[in-house]
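Example A, followed by Example B.
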Amino acid sequence: MRRKTATMGQYCEVQYNKAHWELLRTLREKAASVLYTLEGAGFECFVHGSLARGDVSPGSDIDIIIPGVVQSFRVELALDDIGITARKLVQATPGAMVKAHIYIPDNTTVTFPLVQPNDRELDFYAFGGMIGIKGLEDIITNRVPGVDKRLMLIEPTAEGHAETPLSDLSSGVVAKKIGVGQGIVDERIRVLQRRARVGTTGVYLDRLLSPTEGFEAVLEEIVASDSLVRRRVKSKKRN
């Protein structure tokens, strides 16, 4: 069962059982296979979310981020043997980073920006916990802190993890523990608390690509007709 967004609880410590460790191992092995493929093609990439923190569940997805702008066809070529099931161009809000989502088997998504991201946009992924391919090798020691969708700070322990509601911590403390800027902590708290009040608000762009379309060409078409997206794309080109 998926956790409800922004439903904070109380501090507690969670001890993982054998099945949990095995699930974490299995998911990390699947993720590592994709990361090795991407890194073999020359891409720096990371896993983010529960798989980096360790607090996985049977419904956990494998979320992979390539943090820089790359040529989309090269990513697709690298993933072609694994099998691409769908491709989407996504933008959360008119001022947000425009990104590509490539979906492959085992509930795995590879994401990369189509315009140059700023530091806060990259911190978004580290906010939930982010780890590279080397960190996936030891499932017990190589887990990182991050915040889940309930606004609980997940901190790995030898037996599992400790979880603390962000309401018990200052944003500066959270930022230091995770290794991100304080701005992203304040921003995510506002966004997730708003979702808890009004529900999911959707995204500005959610464009499914056909097999014959490329990400960059579709983005150019959108830029030509949408002034808000055009402003975001051109602002980063000037920087």
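Example B, a separate protein, is given below in the same form.
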Amino acid sequence: MAHESEIEAKGDYVVRKIGEDNFIVSRDEAGAVHVLFDACRHRGVQVCRSDSGNTSHFRCPYHGWTYGTDGKLVGAPLWRDAFGGMSKEDNGLTAAARVDSFHGLIFATLDPTAPPLKEYLGGMAWYMDLLFGLDGEGMEILGAPQRFVVDANWKSGADNFSGDDYHHGHAAPFRVGDRRLPGAVPRKHDGLPHSGGTRALVVLLDGWRP
């Protein structure tokens, strides 16, 4: 979903997607991280109007329902007169079933029966330790993410990021000490060749979403 360095301060938030739906990744006043469905519980209007920022609350522009950065409903106009005894506690923003982080990377799942994150990552956790665990102070995200919409099927993206070593940036993550992925043929930039028996690792995260 995001990296913890993107929401360092209390009230920081970024908006990311699970599938086609927007979710707010926020840090509340107590420092806890939340992943909240960006839809007012009243009429479903998006309550967050920016991709990132810092705020004390999210207010729906339609009828003024107001939520804290923890997703709890703070109040709404004429709450008692319009809604009687309806519970505020039961009308907060819908939250992801579980939220966890690994090397500062924030993951979320909508499945309450999903296994713990570390268990779900399985052997992929070893590669993440290798890439992201080299510095005791961890990683830091610099700048906003770049987003591209490509009219193509999944094969184009898989080929570009797992087999195309011509781009300098693709080779950089594998230049870690003297370690290389199994089967990789050494090149001057320690990247992955297009051929030579290289085994590609494809990870499909159907449950937890980074």
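On Example B: Residues 33 and 134 are 24 Å apart (CA to CA).
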